[in-house]
Please model this.
Amino acid sequence: MEEVRRKNPGENEFHQAVQEVVESLSPFVQKNPKYEKAKVLERIVEPERIIIFRVPWLDDKGEVQVNRGYRIEMNSALGPYKGGLRFHPSVNLGILKFLAFEQVFKNSLTTLPMGGGKGGSDFDPKEKTDNEVMKFCQSFMSELFRHIGPNTDVPAGDIGVGAREIGFLFGQYKRLRNEFTGVLTGKGLNWGGSLIRPEATGYGCVYFAQEMLRTKGDSIKGKTCLVSGSGNVAQHTVQKVSQLGGKAVTLSDSSGMIHDPSGIDDKKLAYVMELKNVKRGRIKEYADKYRCEYYEGKRPWSIKCDVAFPSATQNEISKDDAKKLVDNGVICVAEGANMPTELDGVRLFLDAKILYGPAKAANAGGVAVSGLEMTQNSLRLSWTREEVDTKLQSIVRSIHESCVRYGKEDGFTNYVKGANVAGFVKLADSMIDQGLV
Ligand code: NDP
Ligand code: 2IT
Model:
């Protein structure tokens, strides 16, 4: 850890992600000297390659704008680099390195042949016109295209990158390469996208919670659930919670949160989808429409619940928030967002022995269906909704089984340890097989 801090100064989120993994892997690595001898831990914290580039574009007023673009190609031991692109003003090297590092373990857990990567830009899509977003995406891809490809590196969406952005990025890649290939996932259904990919992260996260609850003979049915965020992951989490008989009562965005004790049903969710995905408005408008409480600048964690699904961003659950959740009797936390809980909060959940599903296990359904999209593209055919959903459920079940296998501690499953060790073993063995690269 000292070496990681020294070599990557100021990259706090990256330090945090590595620290969590190292804490739970150390005993395992000490028991298995072959990993220590091959210096696998030292190797996996060093990205295979980092690309940083200038992204100039013209806004609607004809003024020049300049953003910074990144792609972290973290690890290719298990397959082509795979992971999303994030467009958000907070994006910097440390945040993308933490996301890429997490992605390597997550992708290993999915059982599919995918390495790990992440990329993005400090570009802020908020309040930009469609034309400006297109101009930015075309400029971004005009550099990125030479570093990616269906057998090299396959980006997808993340915060600020959804169907609209993937469309513009794909169009520009195709134009530059003169090739129609599965170079991105999350594509439109008419041009190579997979059914269920938009739903997959939220659905997968609820399926994972359902698997955890099943170990206690329980289920989502009848449970009051807190969901944060109101984007792709949050929306489909709410949808699956209500399909399984639970009740989601909160949503949020970077301005504040709504609390609707009567539950966010399908009709209200359709309103949220239109508000967020088409009108690109604020969640506050939900409270005006459905006459419920809106709390400016607040997050949902002080509301009493059974299950919590953080689905907005990193470090959105502080130690105090985690304590409030536990004090209020939460039985299960399943992370849709990446690293939403601060390290002290994670320790608190583990000490309280609740069902705590860390992001790299709980939200792996999204990238898993991206992997299925790659397979369908290679086969040049598409599977039905039912086929993809069945495969998603079986992958989530297998991730859960791996976590239990490696994380069992007398009568309690430590899913953090389970996910880290299970993800690590496959990765580390593959790296050793492939020699010193
Ligand atoms: P979206 O852009 O669709 O939605 C993001 C949501 O989170 C918005 O409601 C946004 O509010 C809110 N948010 C973003 N940043 C902040 C912040 N700094 N503080 C408070 N709220 C914030 O992204 P996704 O739903 O795709 O991603 C959400 C999380 O899930 C991220 O952590 C992402 O890494 C993770 N994830 C996504 C996957 C996917 O397939 N999309 C797969 C696995 C994980 P606002 O509108 O105000 O910005
Ligand atoms: O964090 C993630 O797993 C994603 N943003 C999805 C990555 C992908 O390649 O589908």
The chain has a mean pLDDT of 98. The chain has 17 helices and 15 strands. The two ends are 22 Å apart (CA to CA). Residues 47-180 form a domain with the Rossmann fold fold (CATH 3.40.50.10860).
